[in-house]
Design a protein that fits this description.
The protein has 283 residues and is an alpha/beta fold. 49% of the residues lie in helices and 12% in strands.
Length: 283
């Protein structure tokens, strides 16, 4: 790897979109500092130019130490990009999601990226780099039972919009990546948590029909591979003039179109798409 090669720091690098992005970046000849909570998989650790960095985005001390470590390794060269990819999905009816799960959702998806941005901005200024935040289509088109994740990603996009204008004097582009439904393990974990909440004695029966219809419809949807999103992220990393927003996956474009519909029309479309219109109102 040439000494002056461009370097990138990415959070949530151990699996899913993060791991696919690490592979795609190294294939493009970019040095990668891979932020992970508990070690990098062997398949990634063996790639040329990949340096694992301990980083728990919910821990200020961990993020600060990660920034200090990367700065030391770069030795005054700065970073070409910081990618806020680490994410969490909390799924379930707004009424039933425990307060702790709401907090955990925002700790990872909002407060984490804000903290990483604050700690790593000196390296972006030094390297004339760009900030890339991985959001979701649900930030603009919210599905029922995806309230927590949608709220957190909407907050992340507002944060990104503010930062884009604030950092313009330093010519630091701020980019939003909006993936559609992607085949990663965090969706399975989210569904399992939602079932646990739904199945408690006090809640059993509430939303049961709605959740069944929702899960049946979602199980039939085609999921994009993480590599589809990774390819878009790499495009944003390499572009001379990156756009403010990139969509990743065919359903991302559909969701973007839905977001422009009048609210009542959008609600009707989603209700019919998810099969919720067939469910009788509770007594």
């Amino acid at each position: 790897m040439p000494e002056q090669a461009r370097a990138v720091f990415i959070t949530g690098a151990a699996g899913g979109i993060g791991a696919a992005t690490v592979r795609a970046l190294t294939a493009a000849g970019i040095q990668v500092y891979a932020g992970v909570r508990s070690g990098l998989p062997d398949a990634l650790a063996g790639l040329p130019g990949v340096q694992p960095v301990d980083c728990d985005v919910t821990d200020p001390g961990s993020v600060g130490a990660a920034a200090e470590h990367v700065a030391g390794r770069q030795a005054g060269r700065g970073l070409h990009a910081v990618i806020n990819n680490a994410g969490l999905i909390v799924q379930g009816p707004v009424e039933l999601v425990p307060p702790g799960e709401w907090r955990r959702q925002f700790e990872v998806n909002v407060f984490g990226p804000a903290l990483v941005t604050q700690e790593f901005l000196p390296l972006l200024r030094l390297g004339h780099g760009r900030l890339i935040n991985v959001s979701a289509t649900s930030a603009r088109t919210t599905l029922p039972f995806f309230g927590p994740i949608s709220a957190s990603k909407a907050a992340l996009e507002s944060f990104s919009d503010a930062a884009r204008v604030e950092l313009a004097p330093w010519r630091i582009p701020v980019v939003i990546i909006e993936p559609g439904a992607t085949r990663t393990t965090i969706f399975d974990k989210a569904a399992a948590t939602a079932r646990t909440v739904q199945d408690t004695a006090a809640n059993r029966g509430l939303y049961e029909q709605q959740m069944h219809a929702f899960n049946r419809t979602m199980s039939r949807q085609k999921l994009s591979a993480p590599e589809v999103v990774a390819k878009v992220i790499v495009r944003a990393v390499l572009s001379r003039r990156p756009r403010a927003r990139y969509l990743a996956g065919p359903d991302a474009r559909t969701a973007a179109l839905l977001s422009h519909l009048p609210m009542r029309t959008r609600d009707r479309v989603l209700t019919r798409f998810l099969g919720l219109h067939r469910i009788a109102s509770p007594a």
